[in-house]
């Protein structure tokens, strides 16, 4: 087991910089998820760590060793690929045994490690089958088994759940979390799915355009997003944004709607006239009751979900979404008041789109 | 819905009568499938089944166009004569030798070429083109070119060997050297075809398998034997089927390079068939020889197909 560090890690293809001098420390036994939209450089970063992609600048350190010039096999890592990359002509047992055979591990030791991993993953009955005879979920488990038997210092997962359907994704996600709790090895996991990131990670690294946008625990990135991008990326449905201007102790959203600034997450006074982006999560709207600041909007669409109701409404030029209790069923077109908890309002600078703290 | 019956017209459930021609041309019927397959079946029958049947039929006759006599049924006489014909045995032996040497030779060279062509060159087209050129050349043209390459006085091969202190070889005066020159030429000519089929197979192997093997700790050689070769098996078997069948029919290259000489030491079965049917106009014996070659090709194809089925 080992810690991992990226020191000014960069990757360029000609003039195009894919990863921009990333600095990151990952502690031993930590489960870190790199998350971001397509093209943000998360997979490239993981592949540089694995040794599958040459490093353009900076250093990758595993444990206390700079591994830039080491081949993948010398880095003591195991990787689970997006398409599983199981050897189609080998049985499940042979797939799992391959890396041990290459490293000269004895047959008895190989057998015992495979039996242990197979039992942990519930694939004992599949050991004689070929990958083509397995379902997607089973292949995913075999790919994890192949990584586990290696007993590496670091596990790398490259979008391992992308090819599974929603139900299976949830199941395998739980298994990955259980696996980490059982074996306690450092895991670096790449995904574009913020739900996976939130549910699995000890810490989440949000990447955008090859740069780190924010690093933090799931609670931190949810409750204290560092930017409009993070606020919009984390959480489902996404955070609502609308423009506002500071006037006195309030932020004015429309000529008729404003919210108090006391209680909002920021320190110090905000100058009158400062342009802001105001972020409110759909789940932080509450039914309008007395003493609660409110926004008045015209209901556009109502989506009953059973457990709650999503209400899309117009506020000035913006369309916002509110997650309301299931018994709230407004009619499209009607005017409705939505209560807002001031402590849950996020304020971002309109020019930089960074959080005002 | 129609009801089946032996009468020319039949009655539907609601009592209406369906004319016989509607039943036969009912698109939902098996007749449609037969109709759609018929052109291909007729074509196959005309260009494959009939010639093969006719060949087998002719092989039982004494049919020489030079004798002026009508065709005479002789049963297995042509085949009996074949067993006692030393030229048949020599040309068959030469054909088998060429097959045994050039098929594995072309496979090895073709595999190497395919692996090379699969490397991530910045420009792929010159590599692919250089693979295609030997394949695109007509066989007889390749034979002619290589006859000059192996020319004892003006040939490039002797010139190169001479630079390494090797005495000039009179390639086409010795049966062994002549056969070696023919085999080398056939390998050069056919390895690009093998390479193209294997290259297509190589490109179906996902890159992630090699990356997984990299992470698993396998070096390049191990990856070749543990991943590349097993996954190439289907492509290799297909290439071998085609190449073996064409090797058994070898004609053009030895015909252009040595015309079977010295003597008949480099003549192949196909050349002997050609000689009997075209030069001697002995269609009966020539057909019997062709039947043997056809049977040989069928046996080889059956063996390979069995291999594919076993692997599948």
Question: Would you mind describing this structure in some detail?
Answer:
The complex is a heterodimer of chains A (357) and B (312). In chain A, 24% of the residues lie in helices and 33% in strands. Chain A is an alpha+beta fold and 357 residues long. Chain A has a six-stranded mixed beta sheet, with helices on both faces. The longest helix of chain A has 18 residues, at 166-183. Chain A is elongated. The mean pLDDT of chain A is 92. Chain B has helices spanning 20-24, 30-58, 77-83, 86-117, 125-136, 139-149, 156-163, 175-202, 207-216, 220-248, 252-257, 269-279, 283-311, and strands at 10-11, 17-18, 61-62, 72-73. Chain B starts with 9 loop residues before the first strand and ends with a helix. The model of chain B is unreliable at 1-8 (pLDDT under 50). In chain B, α12 runs antiparallel to α13. In chain B, the strands form two sheets. In chain B, strands 1-2 form a two-stranded antiparallel sheet. With 312 residues, chain B is an all-alpha fold. Chain B contains 13 helices and four strands. At the A-B interface, β6 and α2 of A face α9 and α10 of B.
| Derived structural class of chain A | alpha+beta
Termini distance of chain A? 37 Å
Average per-residue pLDDT of chain B, rounded, comes to 89
Shape of chain B: flat
Number of domains of chain A: 2
GO molecular function (chain A): ABC-type transporter activity; ATP binding; ATP hydrolysis activity
Family (chain A): Belongs to the ABC transporter superfamily.
Keywords (chain A): ATP-binding, Nucleotide-binding, Transport
Protein name (chain A): Sn-glycerol-3-phosphate ABC transporter ATP-binding protein UgpC
Structure keywords:
heterodimer; A: 357 residues; alpha+beta; Rossmann fold; OB fold (Dihydrolipoamide Acetyltransferase, E2P); 2 domains; 6-stranded mixed β-sheet; 5-stranded antiparallel β-sheet; 20 strands; 24% helix; elongated; B: 312 residues; mainly alpha; MetI-like fold; two-stranded antiparallel ribbon; 13 helices; 70% helix; flat; disordered N terminus
């Amino acid at each position: 087991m080992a810690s991992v560090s990226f020191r000014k890690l960069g990757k360029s293809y000609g003039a195009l910089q894919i990863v921009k001098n990333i600095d990151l420390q990952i502690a031993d036994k930590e489960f870190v998820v790199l998350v971001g939209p397509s093209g943000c450089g998360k997979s490239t970063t993981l592949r540089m760590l694995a040794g599958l992609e040459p490093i353009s600048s900076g250093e990758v350190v595993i444990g206390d060793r700079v591994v830039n010039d080491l081949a993948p096999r010398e880095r003591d890592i195991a990787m689970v690929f997006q398409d599983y990359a199981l050897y189609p002509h080998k049985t499940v047992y042979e797939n799992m045994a391959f890396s041990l055979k290459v490293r000269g591990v004895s047959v008895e030791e190989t057998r015992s490690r495979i039996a242990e991993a197979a039992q942990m993953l519930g694939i004992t009955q599949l050991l004689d089958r070929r990958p083509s005879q397995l379902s997607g979920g089973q292949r995913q488990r075999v790919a994890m088994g192949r990584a586990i038997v290696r007993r590496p210092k670091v596990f790398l997962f490259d979008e391992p759940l992308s090819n599974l359907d929603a139900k299976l994704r949830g199941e395998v996600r739980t298994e990955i979390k259980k696996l980490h709790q059982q074996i306690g090895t450092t895991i670096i996991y790449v995904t574009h799915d913020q739900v996976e990131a939130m549910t699995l990670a000890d810490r989440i690294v949000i990447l955008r355009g090859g740069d780190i946008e924010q690093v933090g625990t799931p609670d931190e990135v949810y409750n204290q997003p560092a930017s409009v991008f993070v606020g919009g990326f984390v959480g489902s449905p996404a955070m609502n944004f609308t423009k506002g201007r500071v006037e006195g102790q309030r932020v004015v959203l429309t000529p008729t709607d404003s919210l108090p600034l006391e209680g909002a997450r920021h320190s110090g006074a905000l100058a009158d006239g400062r342009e802001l982006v105001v972020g409110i999560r759909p789940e932080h709207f509450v039914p309008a009751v007395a003493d609660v600041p409110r926004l008045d909007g015209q209901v556009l669409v109502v989506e009953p979900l059973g457990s709650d109701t999503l209400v899309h409404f117009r506020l000035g030029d913006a369309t916002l979404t509110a997650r309301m209790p299931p018994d709230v069923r407004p009619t499209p077109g009607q005017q409705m008041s939505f209560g807002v908890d001031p402590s849950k309002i996020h304020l971002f600078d309109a020019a930089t789109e960074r959080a005002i703290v | 819905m129609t009801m089946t019956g032996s009468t020319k017209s039949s009655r539907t459930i609601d009592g209406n009568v369906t004319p016989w021609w509607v039943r036969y041309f009912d698109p939902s019927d098996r007749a449609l499938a037969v109709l759609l397959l018929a052109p291909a079946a007729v074509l196959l029958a005309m260009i494959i089944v009939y010639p093969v049947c006719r060949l087998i039929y002719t092989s039982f006759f004494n049919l020489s166009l030079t004798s002026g006599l009508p065709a005479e049924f002789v049963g297995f006489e042509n085949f009996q004569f074949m067993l006692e014909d030393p030229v048949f045995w020599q040309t068959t032996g030469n054909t088998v030798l060429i097959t045994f040497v050039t098929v594995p030779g072309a496979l090895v060279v073709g595999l190497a070429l395919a692996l090379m062509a699969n490397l991530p060159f910045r420009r792929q087209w010159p590599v692919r083109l250089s693979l295609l050129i030997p394949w695109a050349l007509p066989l007889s043209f390749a034979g002619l070119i290589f006859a000059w390459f192996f020319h004892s006085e003006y040939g490039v091969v002797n010139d190169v060997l001479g630079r390494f202190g090797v005495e000039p070889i009179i390639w086409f005066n010795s049966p062994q050297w002549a056969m070696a020159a023919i085999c080398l030429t056939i390998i050069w000519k056919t390895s690009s075809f093998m390479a193209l089929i294997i290259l297509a197979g190589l490109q179906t192997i996902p890159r992630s398998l090699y990356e997984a093997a990299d992470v698993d700790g396998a070096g390049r050689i191990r990856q070749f034997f543990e991943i590349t070769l097993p996954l190439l098996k289907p492509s290799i078997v297909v290439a071998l089927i085609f190449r073996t069948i064409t090797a058994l029919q070898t004609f053009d290259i030895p015909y252009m390079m040595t015309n079977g000489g010295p003597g008949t030491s480099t003549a192949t079965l196909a050349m002997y068939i050609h000689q009997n049917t075209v030069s001697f106009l002995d269609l009966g014996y020539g057909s019997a020889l062709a039947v043997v070659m056809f049977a040989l090709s069928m046996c080889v194809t059956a063996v390979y197909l069995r291999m594919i089925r076993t692997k599948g």
